[in-house]
From TrEMBL:
Protein name: F-box/LRR-repeat protein 4
Highest taxon, organism lineage: Eukaryota
F-box/LRR-repeat protein 15-like leucin rich repeat domain: residues covered: 257-412
One Pfam family hit: DUF7885
Entry-linked InterPro entries: FBXL15_LRR, Leu-rich_rpt, Leu-rich_rpt_Cys-con_subtyp, LRR_dom_sf
Gene3D superfamilies: Ribonuclease Inhibitor
Stored SMART domains: LRR_CC
Length: 516
């Protein structure tokens, strides 16, 4: 009996070591169970916190310091902002310094859309210059480098309008005067401060007009990024998409310090240039994923230099990089021939057949190819792609607005690319029902899940019928603006779409992002 009493009095915290408790925690599969584990006592909460690997948060420097102390082994931190909603004051350089100092184990950092916020500042003492334009309003804006004036009419004011313009534009005041009928509006000649900001603004205004100054908050800059580079040299993944204040200085510092970088996303970072690609080539030889969408300063020279040192590239997004041509793409296909799986070239209008022919020749493992808007691409190169080694690996192909594409190349794709899952040929006006005749020649059902044929005027209900005969896995079909394909016409023809298939006749359905 005494032995039983002694056994029942043993405390589990005294019996189990930290390593044994960590082993128990590792056995728990769901996040909810792990959270419950931390509710037992402070010791268990501490262990649960130190073992946490991933965290999504919005926090300022003070809270980040507390998080760093609690989640000491954090591997992935996501501070990305929403596209539609921003949170004041957003992520700043001060936050990045705290992250750099406090999260020593960090490998993945997400800062997407941390571009700073615009703070509304009332114009005048009360924010509204009311009733008449008797007086001239003055407001001092010392050291504000980017000031935007928004002129907003009250609901009952005449000529409702919204005008947004940079005050630094010499023609701004004339534009305001002409548009909204302000009697007098001028800038003093000595308004600019030494940092390019504005010292004073004098405006004469009409009644019932609300004037608001909008000043850009800092957001993250090269200063914060350099702090990350100095202290987090083991960083493997960084997403700073749409952080528009970053330049080659800060990004090159990341490349030089974080030599084990595997993934880097810079979409919408307008100041990115070839210097960044050169720094990556020299230092980040393990780079596998690079997003450069909208980085219009990138050129063929930078891309060629990049792949000399980064030959393990699996994912490359150069959508809307308008200075890229066949020279740059051919360099990528040759240098990354074994590794490249995804290449995005949307609206790279200088890219033509030579690029696709090179991809067909060298890239045997290509899975996703985006060439929408590359209007010089023709049937010749697409047919080569369809019969190349990558025809067995190709899953996603976007060719919308490739105006020279016809039934010949599409027949070849349907016959040979039997693992194709998503295809976009929107606005390819030469495509007809004959394109779908090759569907039955492969001897097996096509695994196509997404097909977009919007604005293809020569495709009819008969062509859609051929598609359905050979493809029973279709999940999304886009036939918007196809004059001969209507819901009533499909019903009349007795077409039977797969149960899970969503057919977009009028644009009322959301589109899958597989081909973005």
């Amino acid at each position: 009996m005494a032995g039983v009493e002694e056994a029942s009095g043993v405390c589990i915290n005294e019996a189990l070591t930290d390593d044994e408790l960590r082993a128990v925690l590792a056995k728990l599969q769901s996040d909810k169970d792990k959270e419950v584990f931390g509710l037992v006592c402070k010791r268990w909460l501490h262990l649960q916190s130190t073992e946490r690997k991933k965290l999504c948060a919005r926090a300022g420097p003070l809270m980040l310091r507390k998080m760093a102390a609690r989640f000491s082994r954090l591997v992935e931190l996501d501070l990305s902002q929403s596209i539609s909603r921003s949170f004041y004051p957003g992520v700043t350089d001060s936050d990045l310094k705290v992250i750099a100092d406090g999260f020593g184990c960090l490998r993945v950092l997400g800062l997407q859309h941390c571009r700073g916020l615009r703070k509304l500042l009332p114009f005048g003492k009360e924010g509204i210059l009311s009733n008449c334009y008797r007086e001239t309003a003055s407001w001092k804006c010392t050291f504000i480098t980017k000031v935007i004036m928004a002129v907003l009419y009250m609901p009952d004011a005449p000529k409702p309008n919204l005008l947004v313009s940079h005050l630094g534009n010499p023609g701004y005041m004339g534009l305001i005067t002409e548009t909204v009928g302000i009697k007098e509006a001028h800038l003093d000649e000595d308004l600019r401060s030494h940092d390019g900001g504005l010292k004073r603004v004098h405006l004469m205004v009409l009644s019932r007009i609300l004037l608001v100054l909008i000043a850009d908050e800092a957001g993250i800059t090269d200063v914060g990024l350099m702090a990350i580079g100095r202290n987090l040299s083991h960083l493997q993944s960084l997403d700073v998409s749409y952080c528009r204040k970053l330049t080659d200085k800060g990004l090159s510092a990341i490349a030089e310090s974080c030599c084990d970088l595997r993934s880097l996303h810079l979409a919408g970072c307008r100041s990115v240039n070839d210097k960044v690609l050169e720094a990556l080539s020299k230092n980040c030889h393990n780079l596998e994923e690079l997003g450069l969408q909208g980085c219009t300063y990138i050129t063929d020279s930078g891309l060629t230099f990049l792949v000399k040192g980064c030959q393990r590239m699996k994912f490359l997004d150069i959508n809307k990089c308008s200075n890229i041509s066949d020279i740059g793409v051919c360099s990528v296909s040759i240098s990354c021939s074994c590794s490249l799986k995804t290449l995005k070239l949307l609206d790279c209008y200088k890219v033509g057949d030579e690029s696709v022919l090179s991809l067909a020749q060298f890239c045997k493992n290509l899975e996703t190819l985006i060439i929408g808007g590359c209007r010089d691409i023709s049937d010749e190169s697409v047919k080569s792609l369809a019969i190349a080694a990558c025809s067995h690996s190709l899953k996603n192909l976007r060719m919308d607005w490739c105006l020279n594409i016809s039934d010949l190349s599409l027949n070849c794709i349907f016959c040979n690319c039997r693992n194709l899952e998503a295809l976009d040929i929107g606005c390819c006006e030469e495509v007809t029902d004959a394109a779908f005749q090759g569907l039955n020649k492969g001897g097996s059902k096509l695994g196509l899940k997404v097909l977009k044929v919007s604005n293809c005027p020569k495709i009819t209900v008969a062509g859609i019928g051929l598609l359905l005969d050979s493809c029973n896995s279709l999940e999304y079909l886009d036939v918007r603006s196809c004059p001969h394909v209507t819901e009533a016409g499909c019903d009349q023809a007795g077409l039977q779409f797969p149960e899970c298939c969503k057919v977009n006749f009028l644009g009322s359905l959301s589109e899958p992002d597989v081909l973005v």
